[in-house]
Design a protein that fits this description.
Layout lengths: L11 H18 L5 E6 L5 H16 L3 E7 L8 H14 L4 E10 L2 E8 L1 H25 L31 H5 L15
Parallel strand pairs: 1-2
Antiparallel strand pairs: 2-4, 3-4
Length: 194
């Protein structure tokens, strides 16, 4: 320790601001995992099933989790084995990109299971997110220009004279006409009456 003790006087507001900026920079680089839900019915047709499985695969490749829900309506609840069969098919179709995080289970009139990306797919998604964050940071750094290089008083592009439509004064409307909705009342030239 130094003798006499040395202390630094600092601006607390500036310190808090810089701390907040560091926290937001760290937050930009982290990957957020969302839970996406896909709903199916026991009577879902083949094309709809394939379409929804493709969407689940896309969600998992982005690094998100997927909740596959089978909704039973009315008397369909008596055939729970149909819902189980659909969830097993989803599991088989996605076994190369997904692992079952939560096994199929019933909750009221819904049967659901939660899938998460397997470690290899999750790592690929994290790498892709990191690359996108780095590219965004580079673009942000390259896109910023110092304010001292601003050109003032130049003509806007598109018109050689620099005249803009917005800068033109509108036609004069009498104050009484503005109150009536913008239309001027017609005045008879001969009598001077409305």
């Amino acid at each position: 320790m130094a003798k006499p003790p040395v202390c630094k006087i600092m601006d607390y507001g500036k310190f808090k601001y810089e701390e907040k900026k560091r926290a937001s920079e760290a937050k930009k680089k982290q990957v957020v995992v969302h839970l996406k839900e896909i709903k199916l019915r026991p009577k879902t047709e083949e094309h709809d099933y394939e379409f929804k499985v493709r969407n689940i695969k896309r969600f998992l490749e982005e690094g998100n989790k997927a909740k596959v829900t089978i909704v039973f309506r009315g008397r369909e609840i008596t055939h729970k084995e149909l819902g189980s069969a659909i969830l097993e098919d989803v599991n088989k179709d996605l076994k190369e990109v997904a692992v079952v995080e939560q096994a199929p289970r019933m909750e009221g009139r819904q049967m659901f299971m939660i899938l998460s990306p397997n470690p290899r797919v999750a790592q690929r998604a994290r790498e892709q997110a990191r690359q996108q964050a780095e590219a965004a940071a580079k673009a942000e750094a390259a896109g910023k220009k110092p304010e001292g290089n601003r050109v003032v008083g130049s003509k806007p592009e598109g018109r050689p004279d620099g005249d803009r439509h917005e800068d033109r004064p509108e036609e004069a409307v009498p104050p009484a006409a503005q109150q009536q909705g913008g239309l001027a009342p017609e005045v008879s030239a001969a009598t001077g009456t409305k």
